[in-house]
Specification:
By secondary structure, the protein is an all-alpha fold. The chain contains 6 helices and no strands.
């Protein structure tokens, strides 16, 4: 205390550079004190909270980890739902685009069939219609006869035998 008084006393008597520096020094001292007080108060508050709750550093870390995990699980379910819905929306938009293309194709086909000449050509080709007075000719090639005589692969001729053998062949495949 005595030194403070002396330094102040010396400074008062002098004029010049020390008196000009004095306000800057005082401000720096005040700010330094305030900062130390703030640090001390915050440290005291933190240690006071730990004392009130009775938690050590490890326990506080465990509580923080549990809170973070709880938040992560709370966010995970809505996030998963959101991502699932986004993928469903994308697939529905893709399906909608395909259906629009199909509608455009059908509209083109409808416009083609609006012409009576096109309808007549389709009837002649697909249904084998002929106009009155025309003579239709059917040309059958040898390959067509062989295909007509052979039964399709799906329809095998029934083999004669007792019913239980047929049943057993169906079961064993």
């Amino acid at each position: 205390m005595a030194e403070r008084g002396r330094s102040r006393g010396r400074g008062r008597g002098r004029a010049g550079s020390t008196s000009a520096r004095r306000p800057e020094r005082e401000r720096a001292r005040r700010e330094g004190r305030r900062a130390r007080l703030r640090r001390g108060l915050s440290a005291k508050r933190a240690s006071g909270a730990a004392k009130v709750l009775g938690l050590s550093t490890t326990r506080r870390a465990a509580v923080v980890a549990i809170v973070v995990c709880a938040l992560a699980f709370t966010i995970a379910v809505p996030l998963r739902t959101y991502l699932t819905q986004q993928s469903e929306v994308a697939s529905q938009e893709q399906q909608q685009a395909q259906l629009r293309e199909r509608v455009a194709q059908l509209e083109e086909r409808q416009a083609e069939l609006a012409d009576p000449a096109q309808v007549q050509a389709e009837a002649r080709r697909r249904l084998r219609y002929v106009m009155p007075g025309e003579t239709p000719y059917m040309v059958q090639l040898p390959e067509d006869k062989q295909k007509a005589q052979q039964p399709p692969a799906e329809q095998k001729p029934e083999q004669p035998g007792p019913w239980y053998e047929k049943l057993w062949k169906q079961v064993t495949g």
